[in-house]
């Protein structure tokens, strides 16, 4: 699918982007679909794709919702589809895949990216190191927020969007 152009866009229309977002629920165990439905916020809704209403997707969302009832699950429901809001899929130039979501203060919906002022993850430090040896003039950003890359067409996607706290690969076959 990478490199193919489709009629579907992962980004909301400019009118929807301008719309003020409602308050998020306080329940960190809320499912992505519940948060999106409650707030009407397209930023937390799964991408509008043909598969969204299919049984496999509904089953997957049910699995994640059930996991959230019994365990701490990263990413938070409102962050799981952050990557869909950074760049229109038709503008993607590079795809970088990560493994799965990380621990607290290390998740934001983009692989290898953390909120400022959290220090870069070791994997991102390795990427910075390689960039500095391969590209003349590359300067280490000094932080781990690579959302700017995402906005320029670098799709930073974890192969698994959710994970149980302290259990790497726990959603490998599902989430």
TrEMBL record:
Q: Which InterPro entries match?
A: UDG_fam1, Uracil-DNA_glycosylase-like, Uracil-DNA_glycosylase-like_sf
Presence of the UniProt keyword Phosphoprotein in the record: no
Q: Which keywords has UniProt assigned to this entry?
A: DNA damage, DNA repair, Hydrolase
Domain of life of the organism encoding this protein: Eukaryota
- One short Pfam name that applies is UDG
Tell me which family the UniProt entry assigns to this protein: Belongs to the uracil-DNA glycosylase (UDG) superfamily. UNG family.
Kindly provide the name given to this protein in its UniProt entry: Uracil-DNA glycosylase
């Amino acid at each position: 699918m990478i490199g193919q152009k489709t009629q579907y866009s992962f980004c909301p229309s400019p009118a929807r982007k301008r719309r003020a977002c409602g308050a998020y629920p306080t329940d960190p165990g809320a499912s992505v679909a519940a948060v999106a439905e409650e707030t009407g916020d397209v930023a937390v809704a799964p991408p509008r794709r043909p598969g969204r209403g299919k049984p496999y997707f509904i089953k997957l969302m049910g699995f994640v919702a059930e996991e959230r009832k019994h365990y701490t699950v990263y990413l938070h429901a409102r962050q799981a589809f952050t990557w869909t809001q950074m760049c229109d899929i038709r503008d993607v130039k590079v795809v970088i895949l990560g493994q799965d979501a990380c621990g607290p203060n290390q998740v934001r919906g983009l692989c290898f990216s953390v909120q400022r002022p959290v220090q870069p993850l070791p994997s991102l430090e390795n990427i910075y190191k390689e960039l500095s040896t391969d590209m003349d003039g590359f300067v280490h950003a000094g932080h781990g927020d690579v959302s700017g890359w995402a906005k320029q067409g670098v799709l930073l996607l974890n192969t698994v969007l959710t994970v149980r706290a302290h259990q790497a690969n726990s959603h490998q076959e599902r989430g």
